UniProtKB/TrEMBL annotation:
Predominant place of localization: cytoplasm
Family: Belongs to the zinc-containing alcohol dehydrogenase family. Quinone oxidoreductase subfamily.
Keywords on record: Cytoplasm, Metal-binding, NADP, Oxidoreductase, RNA-binding, Zinc
Gene Ontology terms: cellular component: cytoplasm
Ranges for domain Enoyl reductase (ER): 16-330
Name this polypeptide is given: Zinc-type alcohol dehydrogenase-like protein
Compartments where found: Cytoplasm
The protein's assembly and partners: Homotetramer.
Length: 334
């Protein structure tokens, strides 16, 4: 079957950095679904893993962790899906990725595709949705009942990107006062259009731009760069969640305020097959309802076809520029 992979880490401008390859078609067993891939979205994790190399350079490494497609085969232990179901999911970073015509994925981390979205629109959602949902409602332990979050505020750093775009919508749906960071007019407009009540520039001092401390902070990029700013504006007994590593930062910045700091890594459940792995299936289905009810919308901004090495190299190059707004999707093998 067709796939796009790489043999070694190369600059994305090199034609060999991602290549069109042929690989064996997998078979579904156990809890796995075999999905015919209709669309895939590109995320920063794709570029980071590509840059991290391939341990076996004789075999192409297949990446890609945002998929929408159709179930073609189910394993013997599958309970929640059947052949023909339209699905969306992010998959597992320790397994082969979705940049292939057919893809194996554990049913416990798969959701039914929103009916009101096409495959490309749906593929823009899974990884960022899982990340945002877990950060807000599991790490921060926010309620999904808007009445419980009255008068609470959240600062989302990197609000115009893929995760930020869905986190802004979810936080607003949950009743919080949402402040998003944006440094360009187009990104500021995007953030406000997706529900932010206000914006600040993440290149400038946070304290000077805010009227009051914030109860929660979701840092989606450059934890190190924003560390002191976050410590300054977080409210006493507040909670900060980050998805990027903080290199040897002084936790005493948070001590006097009794601030909680947590990491969010949406692949944790799949990597370790935790007992609550099924929660990703449940949250994707919950967001499916929100989408179909018109409460949450896709964050797709850039779509192209077909799925091939050339188009995926272009997508990776855009991601590496650090200036993307929303999500990039490539659809349809030919």
């Amino acid at each position: 079957m067709k796939a796009v992979g790489f043999y070694q880490s190369l600059p994305i401008t090199d034609e060999k950095s991602l290549q069109d390859v042929e690989v064996d078609e997998p078979k579904a067993a156990g809890k796995d679904l075999l999905v015919r891939v209709k669309a895939i979205s590109v995320n920063p994790v794709d570029t980071k893993i590509r840059q991290g190399g391939n341990k076996d350079e004789s075999t192409p490494k297949i990446i890609g962790w945002d998929v929408a497609g159709v179930v073609e085969e189910v394993g013997s232990d599958v309970e929640r899906f059947e052949v023909g179901d339209e699905v969306y999911y992010a998959g597992s970073v320790i397994r082969s990725g979705g940049n292939s015509e057919k893809h194996l994925v554990d049913e416990r981390i798969v959701g039914k595709k929103p009916e009101t979205l096409d495959f490309a629109e749906a593929a823009a959602l899974p990884l960022t949705t899982i990340t945002a949902w877990e950060a807000l409602f599991e790490r921060m332990r926010l309620s999904t009942d808007a009445a419980d979050n009255k008068d609470k505020s959240i600062l989302i750093i990197g609000a115009a990107g893929g995760v930020g775009s869905i986190a802004t919508q979810l936080a607003k749906w949950a009743g919080l006062y949402v402040i998003g960071t944006a440094s360009r007019k187009e990104s500021e407009d995007w953030v406000k259009d997706h529900g932010a009540d206000a914006t600040i520039n993440h290149h400038d001092d946070f304290m000077a731009q805010l009227d009051a401390n914030v109860d929660y902070i979701f840092c989606i990029n450059q934890t190190d760069q924003h560390w002191e700013n976050m410590g300054n504006v977080i409210a006493p007994q507040g909670h900060i969640v980050s998805i990027e590593s903080a290199e040897q930062k002084d936790l005493n910045v948070l001590k006097n305020k009794s601030v909680t700091f947590s990491y969010e890594f949406m692949f944790t459940r799949a990597m370790y097959e935790t007992e609550d792995m099924i929660e990703q299936h449940r949250l994707l289905n919950e967001v499916r309802k929100l989408v179909d009810e018109g409460k949450i919308r896709t964050t797709l901004t850039d779509r192209s076809e077909p799925i091939n090495a050339k188009n995926l190299r272009q997508a990776h190059e855009k991601i590496e520029s650090g200036k993307t707004i929303g999500k990039i999707v490539v659809e349809n093998f030919r």
